[in-house]
Design goal:
Blueprint (H helix, E strand, L loop, with lengths): L1 E10 L6 E4 L2 E8 L5 E5 L2 H4 L4 E5 L2 E4 L16 E9 L2
Parallel strand pairs: 6-7
Antiparallel strand pairs: 1-2, 1-7, 2-3, 3-4, 4-5, 5-6
């Protein structure tokens, strides 16, 4: 399923940037040689949430769903970006 031009938020940081998609926060996991960046749910270490996303260019691919409710996140210092979101169902 494709969501055209969905807004997501980037919380810039030098060491630990974050992405917020659908009220869920993701932390950077790794980058590959093809320019893709893999992200893990911020709740992975606490409750083993398996949700992951991959970003490349202006595309965000959501690989799996969360095992918890969306979080309340402060987006006051976040930067808004319009992207295309691809969802694996």
């Amino acid at each position: 399923m494709i969501d055209q031009l969905t807004v997501f938020y980037v919380v810039p940081a030098i060491k630990n940037p974050k992405i917020i998609v659908d009220h869920h926060e993701y932390l950077i996991n790794r980058k590959d040689y093809a320019g893709r960046t893999m992200w893990l749910c911020a709740k992975y270490s606490k409750i083993r949430c398996k949700s992951r996303i991959i970003t490349y260019g202006k595309t965000v691919k959501i690989m799996s769903s969360h095992n918890h409710s969306p979080m309340r996140i402060d987006i006051s210092n976040a930067v808004t970006q319009r992207v295309t979101i691809l969802r694996n169902n």
